[in-house]
Amino acid sequence: MNTELEATTGEVLGPRVSGSPDRKARPLSPSAEVLVVEDDEALLPILEFLIEEARPGCAVAWAKNSAQAESLLADKHGSAKLRVVIADLFIQGDKNGVELWRRYGGSARSFLVISGASRERFLSLVPDREAPLFLPKPLDLDACVETLRLMLENPGWY
């Protein structure tokens, strides 16, 4: 692959809105292994493709804002098989990707934060030096697939 994909729209450091405002989250099925938290709906098919490359047949759920994400992550029965959360840093709602990681990350679940913001901006939100994995947008496709493969094969790896 060795290509980069320009996938962001809107303001880099502000919340992004695309698609219809009444679009609902994809339900978290008992077999879902990955939750994508992303408010830029144009990026969802790209992330689903990358996840499929990392683990063919992997079930994916998605949320477009922090409230939908929290509802899915708090459902202990529905999120039992959830191994990886991919969260945009700046999403619609009252929490960002780092705040979701702080609350719902853990030894059984890996978090990957993606953003058009710089690494420095990302690290400014995690002053305690412990941080989830971070990949900048535009996404390097090879790096993203390899990172997802490692995360799916080793729950809680990072």
Describe the fold and architecture.
The protein is 30% helix and 17% strand. It has 5 helices and 7 strands. It has helices spanning 44-54, 66-74, 97-104, 119-124, 141-153; strands at 4-5, 34-37, 60-63, 84-88, 110-115, 133-136, 139-140. A 5-stranded parallel sheet has the order 3-2-4-5-6, sandwiched between helices. A two-stranded antiparallel ribbon has the order 1-7. It is globular. The two termini are 25 Å apart.
SSE topology sketch:
Layout: E1 4-5, E2 34-37, H1 44-54, E3 60-63, H2 66-74, E4 84-88, H3 97-104, E5 110-115, H4 119-124, E6 133-136, E7 139-140, H5 141-153
Parallel strand pairs: 2-3, 2-4, 4-5, 5-6
Antiparallel strand pairs: 1-7
What are its keywords?
Rossmann fold, 17% strand, 30% helix, five-stranded parallel beta sheet, 158 residues, two-stranded antiparallel ribbon, alpha/beta
